[in-house]
Amino acid sequence: MSIDLSASPERPGPWEAPDEYWPLLAEATVDLDPPLAVLDLDALAYNAHDLRRRAGATPIRVASKSVRSRAVLAAVLALDGYAGVLAYTLPEALWLAAGDDLYPPIGDVVVAYPSVDRAAIARLARSPELAARVTLMVDSVDQLDLVDRVAAASSRETLRVCLDLDASWKAPGLGHLGVRRSPVHSAEQARALAETVASRQGFTLVGLMAYEAQIAGVGDAVRGRRVRSGIVRLIQRQSKEELLERRGSAVAAVREVADLEFVNGGGTGSLEFTSSDPSVTEVAAGSGLFGSHLFDSYRAFSPAPAAAFALPVVRKAAPQIATLLGGGWIASGPPGNDRVPLPVWPQGLRLLPAEMAGEVQTPVAGRPAAALRVGDRVWFRHSKAGELSEHVDGFNVIHRGHAVDEIPTYRGEGKVFL
Fold first, then answer.
1. How many Cα neighbours within 13 Å face the side chain of 60?
2. Distance (Å, whole) CA 233 – CA 129
3. What angle do CA 268, 402, 39 make, to 5 degrees?
4. Of 334, 330, 416, 418, whose CA–CA distance to 380 is shortest?
5. Cis status of the peptide bond prior to 346, with omega within 30 of 0
6. Are strands 169-171 and 175-177 parallel, antiparallel or unpaired?
7. How far apart are CA 356 and CA 157, in angstroms?
């Protein structure tokens, strides 16, 4: 259950020609029963190396929520330029950091969000090995207090801590732009919290994180939305200018208090910008590995659709409509058409507005639907990368038109963390 991504395709591959790529995946899985998910090895390798190119000399920490497969995490971390994991829950981080007979321990796991999981905190606090490998995220004294209530500082391992700096933009006339993360916004607030952490027994401050969602997570070239895309680009330019100054000041202020091991920022959508920030020592990325369709609306890069899934036609509701089994794999975030699975093969299919992607059935219409028969399959791309992994036990790995392996997702290993 291992894959090798060391060989990077010299040029984008067959995914640039849909009538070549999707039939290739269909032929490779013809003997497998859908619903099924695939990972194209060449496309995944292309994406991994392209992310590395975009980040320049700045190391990439892999965002596990956008992958949710230990086999993929291991393959990516084996590449030069990748170092460490950005986990999404503390139980997940402990699992990755502990390792087992299948996968060795990951020695550097930062939990991207604060945790109040008492059992997980207690396990971390009593293990010297895990405490050396896992870093907690904090943005308030309340989170430190909770840890102390679970495990007294005098009788536990010293826990590694990262400060979460709010990277959203308080835009004049527009208000808050970005996600609602940390209450720590200014350099002064960051320093004050850093001083508190440094003064507390049982904690050591090792990092600072500032994720600029309004830059990394918003497409600036949405098809059919030219005016909106232009406005997004303008806002992002102004937000970048503000963040460069404020993040730099915050990092400098915190470094006066603690010798930081890392300063993390960015995401798949902002690697070029974030890696150019002199205050940042590493960037985070994950979604760009799978190339989900939410990232089709960015000008700076074009990931290959490495991950996809197929659903079977189980009935013909009408001559021009084919009904598929399942399909309601809706992405998180603001409800909208960009959060539903995208039918990509046969080309020209569309979801029905009155039903869209359903829990147990998904009708598709369009000219190609008339030719679909019971037992045929339709290929989709998910909107958000790692969320596909929550719907399948594993990925069928495709290489040069052949199914060569099957790797488990977290779900396939019996793990569901959120």
1. 30
2. 45
3. 20
4. 330
5. yes
6. antiparallel
7. 51
pTM of this structure? 0.94
Query: How far is it, in rounded angstroms, from Cα 43 to Cα 356?
Result: 28
CB neighbour class for 234 (10 Å; exposed up to 12, middle 13-18, buried from 19) = exposed
Cβ(361)–Cβ(325) below 8 Å: yes
Return the structure tokens found at 384. Answer: 């958000």
Residue 114, amino acid: P
Give yes or no for a contact between 396 and 331, defined as CB atoms under 8 angstroms apart: no
Distance CA 404, CA 124 (A): 38
List pLDDT tens digits, range 30-51: 999 999 999 999 999 999 999 9
Distance CA 364, CA 389 (A): 23
DSSP-assigned letter for residue 133: H
Instruction: Check if the beta carbon of residue 373 is closer than 8 Å to that of residue 9.
Output: no
Report strand pairing: 307-318 vs 82-87.
unpaired
User: Token match 């598929």: residue?
Assistant: 324
Q: In this predicted model, what pLDDT tens digit does every residue of 194-224 receive, in sequence order?
A: 999 999 999 999 999 998 877 776 666 567 6
Q: Which residues pair with 380 in a beta bridge?
A: 309, 343
H-state helical runs in 84-203: 90-98, 118-125, 128-133, 141-150, 187-199
